[in-house]
Amino acid sequence: MSSAFTRRHLFRLGGATLVVAAGTGLGLPALAAGTVTVDLVVYGATSAGIMAAVQMRRLGGTAVIVEPGRHVGGLTTGGLGYTDSGTSAAIGGLAGEFYRRVYARYQGTPVTPDSPMRLVFEPHVAAGIFDDLLTEHAVPVYLDAPLATVERAGDRITGLVTAHGQLFTGPMFVDATYEGDLMAAAGVSYTVGREANTAYGETINGVQLRGEHQFTLPVDPYVLPGDPASGLLPGISAAPVARNGTGDDRIQAYNFRMCLTRAADRVPFPRPAGYDPADYELLLRYVQAGYTGPFFTTQSVGGGKTDSNNTGAFSTDFIAANHAYPTASRAQRDSLTADHLTYQQGLMWFLANDPRLPASVRAGTAAWGLAADEFTATGNWPPQLYVREARRMVSAYVMTERDCRGTVRAADSVGLASYTMDSHNCQRVVVNGLVKNEGDVQVGVPGPYPVSYRSVVPAAGQCANLFVPVCLSATHIAYGSIRMEPVFMILAQSAATAAKLALDTGVPVQQVDVAALQARLRRDGQILSWPPTVDGEIVADNRSAGVTRAGVWVGSTAIGGYWGSDYEHDGNTGKGVNRLRFTPSLPTAGSWTVHLRWTADPNRAGNVPVDVVHGGGVTTRVVDQRTSGGQWVSLGTYQFPAGTAGSVLIRTEGTDGYVVADAARFVPA
């Protein structure tokens, strides 16, 4: 548990109370009793669980979070600080507020509705922000409280009983775990593994032998090279590979998202108990074949630290070691988690110390270490295993590849997803006498797409008062796109809002008035459609009819956060020649607030001149396109005549990097 969590009710049911702070709104006697009754019982203190409880409190209800382990915040506080966001502008509501709070925390400024979002952060910063949210909204969190049984009356959950005998009751429940344990215990339908492509008319589900995160050099899989009778090296399956698109019960690999640093006080990678260099013989052979790395990612999150993830053919993912995890007992999961810990710590020790590796590999790895001020309660190692998928509910609406690609669009949207359809490898196999990885898929989506309300509630008749915003109803490959922390937060807020509506109107969750739900979500800042709109706004996209260009502009989708189908850039050439003008057709004369949008990157220009042509003349603003990407950045409010006399001109003279033209927005003031 992060030391940042110090200012609210944190109860450990398996031992002593950790912290007791006043102000939960429930009162200490109620919390100390054998039964706790609230409007919303949330199982799982993940980022989703926190947002569900906070939203219920904002709506005037009571909520409690019951966490089976000791970690609060899930992957968001567990090392995943380089947020997988897709189109960041599609993040609204409480999730957007969380990332604005991150920005404000780093800037030392108050958070406002107009604060930019910051989607990269150190783990302790995320923990502190969740702590603030839980404290501000007086949400108690029970730790060490694994689910033992679920009490039901008809098709409703009436209570959640923990292994220590504590009973949590209420009219509404949310399963916010990565594993879907409450959902399963409540008798809700679910699946594990990969569907065949034929099941839902998909193309990249099931077995996928592809080129991503693949061995790019020939590596022998046998204990004695060239001798199949000697057996296979650790982690390689002897089973023949099924044809692409075949369904099975395999899931994508897990790992830990390490927070690394090169700082002088870094903690050297530990040699774990049970370390066996034979587990990395395959990697050694890959290096001896000529592979030079990288062996793990080093994405910066600030403070000289990283969010380090899997990369390449042999890295931090413990491929195929997790297949039993989704439906395993708590003791079995603890054992599997320990296996992952031994594997990944052993990998880092191997890379930094094994004398058979080139000195450059050892030195390059040993230059990194664990951040000394992160995860201090767990030896500076992340306490949260990255459970990329486990159970997935099967409900009235199953999100599929077609939703991700935008060929179908759910009308009952309760939030947007936008990340690549992303599955890590599921198994390591032998093909033509060489080792190969199988299961990795990295296929982009054309833009943000809606997630159906029906996909976060059970099918009618199965459970009338449960929401499942994390292990929602989706195929393996669609879940690979949806399964991102911002989306979990978005769907959890929407689930809590629906829970309050169901509670107030006395209907099962399947009968919530979706139009009323969506209206409330929009008032609370959720973005339910793409492109998002403001009443009366006019957006001029780079592909709109009212756009004129001078010079050469290059279309691109390389950096996410753009409006519409793509954005354009000047190629960092033709300075002063390349220009692009957005000319809207304004329906009425009056005051209009003008916004500009771009995708940010360090290679962008920090001094882009932008001319706003309005009724009073021309006003020039200078924008920094290295920051604030994927957002509407205000250029001010001006008087405009009706029609097409007004415009926004992006110029390139004197600019010190790539200049991007994406979209301009005009909002009636």
Automatic annotation (TrEMBL):
Listed CDD domains: CBM6-CBM35-CBM36_like_2
Entry keyword annotation includes Disulfide bond: no
Keywords recorded for this protein, A-Z: 4Fe-4S, Iron, Iron-sulfur, Lyase, Metal-binding, Oxidoreductase
Gene Ontology molecular-function annotations: 4 iron, 4 sulfur cluster binding; lyase activity; metal ion binding; oxidoreductase activity
Domain spans labelled Golvesin/Xly CBD-like: 538-667
Matches recorded under Pfam families: FAD_oxidored (PF12831), Golvesin_C (PF25275)
InterPro entries reported for this sequence: CBD-like_Golvesin-Xly (IPR033803), FAD/NAD-bd_sf (IPR036188), HdrA-like (IPR039650), TAT_signal (IPR006311)
Protein name: Xanthan lyase
Organism: Micromonospora wenchangensis
